[in-house]
Task: structure prediction
Amino acid sequence: LDPLQMAIPDEKYIVDKISSIPEYKELFEKAFPEKMGRIKFEQITMSISSFQRTFRTSDRFDDFQRGRYKSLTLDEIKGLEIFLSVGCAKCHKGPLLGGNSFQKIGIKKNYQNTEDKGRFNITGKQEDMYVFKVPSLRNIALTAPYFHDGSQTTLDLAVKNMGELQLGKNLTEQEVESIISFLNSLTDKAREN
Result:
C-alpha cells in the first residue's frame, strides 16, 4: 500500500481493482478454492508474495552477459539490438530490466484507457497523471496479461503497442518478433518450456 511504490491508496482500492478483472477472479478461485467468493486483501498479498519469490531467476540472458555468447540465438541477439536501438532500455534498465522507476503511459501517443489515473490518484499532482511503475521484464513471457490494466493479452500486442505509445515507433512485424525472441531469453531456465 506504499503510495510511493504502487499508487494504491487503501485495501479496498486494490481489492476492487483486482476483482474487476474477470481473468483474475477466475485465477483467485483456482488459487484459493477453500475461500470461494469475494477476493480478499490477504489473498492478494499472499499472491503478490508468491509471485515476487519467482523474481530470482537464472536465465540465458544472464549467461550471455557473463560472456557465454552462445547462450542466445542470433535472433535473440538481433532482438536485443532492436530493443536497445529503438529505446526500450531507456525505461527497462538495471538488473531486472525495469521495476525501478515510474513512467507515464502514453508519452508519444495517448493511451486509450484513461479511467486509471496512476500515481495521480495518490499524489494529486498533474505530472503524475497516467504515471505507473515500469515493470521488470524478467520472466515477462510468463506473466500475461500486460500493462497496468491487463488490456494487452499477448506479448506481441504489448510490444507493438509499447513501441507506439512510449517510443512513437511503428515496429515492423519482424522487429516485434525479434524483440519477443529476446524477451523469451529472460525466462528463468527452470521455467522454460
